[in-house]
Amino acid sequence: MKLYFTKSGIQKLRVEIGKLTLRLNELQAQTAHVAEVGGDQYHDNASYDLLVIDIRGVDHRLSAAHKALNHAVVIDPPTTAEKVRIGTKVTIVDTVDGHESTWEIVGYGESDPDKDLLAYNTPLVAAIMGKTEGQEINTFINGVKARIKIKKIELGGVS
What we know:
By secondary structure, the chain is an alpha/beta fold. It contains three helices and seven strands; from the N terminus they run βααββββαββ. The protein has helices at 7-37, 46-70, 123-128; strands at residues 3-5, 72-74, 88-94, 100-106, 117-119, 136-141, 144-155. The strands form two sheets. Strands 5-4-3-7-6 form a five-stranded mixed β-sheet. Strands 1-2 form a two-stranded parallel ribbon. It is elongated, with a radius of gyration of 22 Å.
């Protein structure tokens, strides 16, 4: 299973791994103190129980980040905007209601709808990946059948 990232996306993932590693080390360093303060009985130590929950959560997120890094493939920015792919900016039109929106296609885990960034593996983008300007696609958006037309494809700014 390959996970595709932009260069900035893979850098963000590496920074996140570093932060999670530091946080996990900080939490693990607290275990002896929390166990000592709470007495000899671990099962009656609420602080210790909460710390263990925090450790497990951070460890789970760190494991997922390492797994993503192990499957990562960095995509070079496209040099042409002939079809929808990672690194392009796409303007689409809902042919039913005429609603128009523009999205930049980014790598795995890089979605930020507030900044008009959608990852290639989101349902909407998965439906239009590889398509060209002018093509119309039947798909579902939020469980509702939609017909989308690709109005414009251009080079994006995320790399």
